[in-house]
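Record type: ASSEMBLY
Status: queued
Input:
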Amino acid sequence: MLKMMMRNIAAASFYCSSRRWRGMPCLHSNSTLVVFDNNYFAFFHSQPSKPIKSTRTQLDQPVRDSPKITNVEDAFNVIDRMLQMRPRPSVVRFTQILGQVAKLKHYSAVISLYNQMGVSRIGRDVCILTIVINCYCHLNQMGFSLSVLGKFFKLGLEPDVFTFTTLINGFLLENRVAEAAGIFNKMMKAGNCKPNVVTFRTLIRGFCMTGNNRAAIQLLRKMDEGACKPDVVCYSNIIDSLCKDTLVDDALNLFLEMMSKGIAPNVITYTSLIHGVCNLGEWKEATRLLNEMVSKNIFPDVFTFSVLVDTLCKEGMVVEAEGVVEMMIQRDIDPNTVTYTSLMDGYCLRGEIGKAQKVFELMLSKGLMVDVVSYSTLINGYCKCKNIDEAMMLLREMTCKGLVPDTITYSILVDGCCKVGKLGDAQKLFSEMQACGQLPNVQTYSILLDGLCKNRQLSRAIQLFGEMEAKKLDINIVIYNILIEGLYIAGKIESARDLFCGLSSKGLRPNISTAMVLIQTMVERGFSADASTMELIVNLLSKDEVDPALLPLIKKSL
DNA sequence: GTAGGGTTAG
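Status: finished
Output:
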């Protein structure tokens, strides 16, 4: 079926995809902003108001045919020259430059530029201030964003729908959904600044991000009631979220609903759906969707192809994935960092580290940016081949390049060290990551805990488990399985059984892994199943959850 | 002139 899918892709005709620009290191801000009290939404009122004096009514004509800013240095030079010009260029030109630098993701640079012009009239403009708020939002500095909002009131300016949508997005970037929804609700109630389609989209995305599909759909229904007409982006966001939650049928229903309303899907809508069905292994459906989109003159782009490359790689079909990459190049769709990283991972999964390394070098030779994920993928490949030295070299190399290894990078390395029995190095890395501000998560703990248990360092494992409890981490059944197994391996049968019997009191249910741990360790040690184990096995059997490969073992233990 | 959706690593 995958081959058929690939033939269909090959048969379609494509045009060139857009190229994406990746951010360079940002400058640091030394901005000083007005500290503002908490009543930053006092602005909202229920009746339309007379506009407070706004620079929007005093704008000069936009400057046409202005050169595009492609780097920060140019932006600083241009702004510097503009500030010295008499008469000074219009505020629109300043907005365009700041907007372009913000689009390049040089948020700190925008704030520095703003500080240069802040004392002049140019800095007292709704658009300019909104851009500054957006930059603070992207730098996760909501406090400063709200201070800039305070500046609006101090200057007698009226924040508009752009400003509040930006703030909603800022809160969402910090996972502060309730505060984002709070602004939205105030906008809905107020008469002077109603949410528009972008505001709706932003909050819909926020709900989706936190897995609250229901709230997102409710918002969509509110739009249907006439608040604002939903568009392809609103639908696509929810379709994507449903697909990520494997609720592909619901996503397809929403997709049909959207089309029945005359809202045309685009390449993003299709890519989300294809990703969703690929994740479920529904190749036939993926092919159908690919054919459907091409028949509508909607052509797969680098995202769509990357999904296909990743899916093929995860299925072990790396040769076919290479074929898709070749096809992309022939079609003038440049594979990007994500495409090649997926391919590298495919090779790593097959233990073909040499080929993964070659892909990595190809990325470098093509001038593609290698990021934390690319490095982590390659590090994982070396770890799986038990070449920890090379993996550690890559860790140092990425740090030298200014890349910051994250929790996943360290987790991969901790796992690699554990798997070759280097528990000392694993624990050093575990400390190093915390010293670097990368906090271990439940998965990192489970990796180290597993390493300690399997290497018979039970007392340290129990100590680590205590750390997790002290940190109030959400200890899941996987962690308990590791510890129960560790206790069994160490011959502490009673403690293992106590831990197992206490699971339900902690609101946890044993899963198939728990059963495997219990059965295997008991069989290995010649124990027969006790009442609680029997009960567990019977429950699992009745739910058809037992791996058939385990049945001989189960019989042996009964 | 400003806000804004889809692809990769444990």
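Annotation: Residues 213-227 of chain A form the longest helix (15 residues).
Annotation: The CA atoms of residues 181 and 203 of chain A lie 7 Å apart.
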